[in-house]
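Quick one, T. Sequence first:
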Amino acid sequence: MVRAADREVNLALSISGMMKNTTPAIEYRRLTTPRAAAIAGILFGLLFSASLVLLRFAIPEEFTTDTTWITSGAQQIRWALGIMPFAGIAYLWFIGVVRDRLGELEDRFFSSVFYGSSLLFLAMVFVSMALAGGILVTYPMVTGETPDYSAIIFGRAVMLQISNVYALRMAGVMMISLATIWIRTGLMPRWLTVTTFLLAITLLVVVNLNLWVTLIFPVWVIMISVETLVKNLRRST
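Structure tokens:
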């Protein structure tokens, strides 16, 4: 019985060895960021700017109790609401491209500020756009001889406060943290780093509910993305 048990053990070991020998070796490849991934930043800048321009032409610059702009600019607002989610997706890719370029030079402190302010900016933009969508949906429901549009007026005020005050300041903080990393590592040209600092200070200091001011940020993202894309293409040739 002992010999039979030994034979079974030896048979099991031989079968296991044969399976190991016949199993093909699996080779793992390191994932690398596509060199053209910087196009995501350009795409974000274009989509984000298009959405803001549509909102700017739909919503009057002067803050009044007049609500007729909701019906006259409803189609433009719908287009803006449809574009913005895709701009947000492209922005997340842009963050990944920036982190990939930092590589091992990434600083934990400034990188944490960069990621946190970037995500806060995107979240506030989405909340602002959700408020615009809510205004568009609830406006036809306000009926009666003397309709009360106070909630709609309040929603518009909150939308502008979130997008043009808080979101823009988070964008400024993100730009300052990134420019600080660049000036310490030398990853970006000096003129672009200085420009980033100046634009970031402008976003932090200027308090303006005009939607045109928000265009500073997407234009900056396009500048960074173009510079990164050109450098990646030169490296590949």
